[in-house]
Amino acid sequence: MTMLLPWLFALLTVALADQVCYQPFGCFQSDGKEIKTPQTPDVVNTHFKVFNRQHQTTPYYNLGGSNWLGSMNKLDSHLDPSKKTKILVHGFLGNGDNDWIRDTTKALLKKGDFNIIVVDWRGGSQWPYEQAAGNSILVGEELAVLLSYIHSSGHINYADVHIIGHSLGAQIAAQAGESTLGKIGRITALDPADPGFSGKALDKRLDKSDALFVDVIHSDGSHFNLLSGFGTKDAVGDIDFYPNGGEHQPGCSEKPVGSALNGILHGSFGNAVDSFSCSHSRAHQYFLESLTSSCKFYGHQCASTSDFSAGKCLGCPAHGCPVMGYDADQTQARGSFYLATSTSAPFCGKEYYVEVHVSHALHTTYGELFVTLIGTRGTSEELKFSKLLRYYHRDDVEKNVISTHKDIGVVSQVKVRFVRGHDLHALGAAHEILIGKVLVESTENPNVQVKICGHDAHIHERNTITLSSHTGC
Ligand SMILES: [Ca+2]
After folding, report:
1. Cα 56–57–58 angle (5° rounding)?
2. With contact defined as beta carbons under 8 Å apart, do 120 and 39 qualify?
3. Domain boundary assignment for the chain
4. 159, burial (CB in 10 Å: exposed 0-12, middle 13-18, buried 19+)
5. What is this structure's pTM?
6. Is 232 buried (19+), middle (13-18) or exposed (0-12) by CB count in 10 A?
């Protein structure tokens, strides 16, 4: 027994060391892996900045510093209780001056006469991720304390509060929603952070109980590998949108280390996260575009990415498709919704379902295809058709939903370009691809399919051919 006592003492010390308490925000534990205990509130140094239509670029009031709890009444007096409140929260490596926060603030104020509060926790959002993740839980509790105060003073209704958070900011929104006594109105989670949160108990991560309505945009849900995959793939909201499958966004080359270093070297460390993970940042870009564009990101209910790519979920029901972004709350639909976007801004476009049938005569090759659609109303930009480099065997059929910048009407011709891969997989692969036919349909009219025959046309690597025949295949 006496031998055990030092052991017990050691274990107790570890347990205590893995918990910190910062009243009135509560006590915080490490999970021993991806979540460290938070740094002190002084280090995290959270600021709450109030903006409105008269003060869109510099804060009307900036609450922060070591005595901010004693000054909550001053923030309070800068809110208009007759207006709804939008709260913006940045994520890992971000800060309250990030372009997307500034641009979204202005776009929201154009949309409506809101109180805007920007939560700036740059003191706690930096490397390493595990520390930022731990700090985010403290920031969530700080926000909950502030909201509870403003609510008790009669300056907001919880139901009129809408928190928009990116990455760890979405988990901060969840924590705040969890810890306020009344339910807040809405959380828009922009690629909510995955490591340290996915799979945890509901009170430790974003879920649909954190607000009356929770909408989620998944843009970087691939498996986390320190370079990408920062977002969760799990459906965690009332409504979850998976643009382009939700794992990897078209137009993102995902060369994170070099791009991030470039950002840091050029003094834009705060924006380094944007280059660090292009797909992760697309979520807030899509949300911002939903505020400023008349084009709608229509989502199609579907069981999986592969079903969507295979054209099984095209079209919209009679009551319409839900819309990703700001108008996501204008629907009664619930579940997982899929859509395609363009590869560059503006991202919202016109979706087409395309099938490429490889010829029976093909010798196996390895590469990727790009297509340009030519229709009655114009020509699309060149669109990346293959999601990744892949093998093409004889009689293969590749299916995908792609999005063009503009409505090109009924498609009559298609240009196909073949780019052969040059890695080890390409050893022995043919230097050309042969096309049997291409089928195209607009997602709005899934019953109208255009067949364009390839007649086993050969496309040599890096070459493009235009197909326009509609007979003989
Ligand atoms: Ca929760």
Report:
1. 105
2. no
3. 22-339, 350-467
4. middle
5. 0.90
6. buried
Q: Say whether pLDDT at 258 is over 50.
A: no
CA atoms within 13 A on the CB side of 333: 23
CA distance 49 to 450: 54
Distance CA 326, CA 57 (A): 21
Q: How many angstroms separate the CA atoms of 283 and 308, rounded?
A: 19
Write out pLDDT tens, residues 166-180. 999 999 999 999 999
Flag whether pLDDT at 270 surpasses 70: no
- 245 in Cβ contact with 233 (< 8 Å): no
Question: What pLDDT does 277 receive?
Answer: 79
Q: How far apart are CA 55 and CA 46, in angstroms?
A: 20
Six token digits for residue 139 = 């920031």
CATH architecture for segment(s) 350-467 = Sandwich (2.60)
| Torsion on CA atoms 160, 41, 135, 118, rounded to nearest 10 | 30
Q: Is residue 48 helix, strand or coil? A: strand
Q: Which one from 162, 166, 248, 280 is the annotated catalytic residue?
A: 280
Residue 210 annotated as part of some ligand binding site: yes
For 276-303, write each residue's pLDDT tens digit.
678 999 999 999 999 999 999 999 999 9
Backbone angles phi, psi at 453, to 5 degrees: -85, 140
Ligand 1 geometric centre to CA of 460 (Å)? 53
**Domain pair 22-339 / 350-467, same fold:** no
Ligand-binding annotation for 97, yes or no, is no
Which residues have CB less than 5 Å away from ligand 1 (the ion)?
A: 174, 178, 202, 207, 210
Question: How many residues in total does the chain contain?
Answer: 473
* CA distance linking residue 204 with residue 178, whole number of Å: 9
The 10s digit of each residue's pLDDT in 373-413 is: 999 999 999 999 998 899 999 999 999 999 999 889 889 99
Query: Does the CA dihedral 141-147-148-149 come out positive or negative?
Result: positive
Hey, how many other C-beta atoms are within 10 angstroms of the C-beta on 149? 16
Fold of 22-339: Rossmann fold (3.40.50)
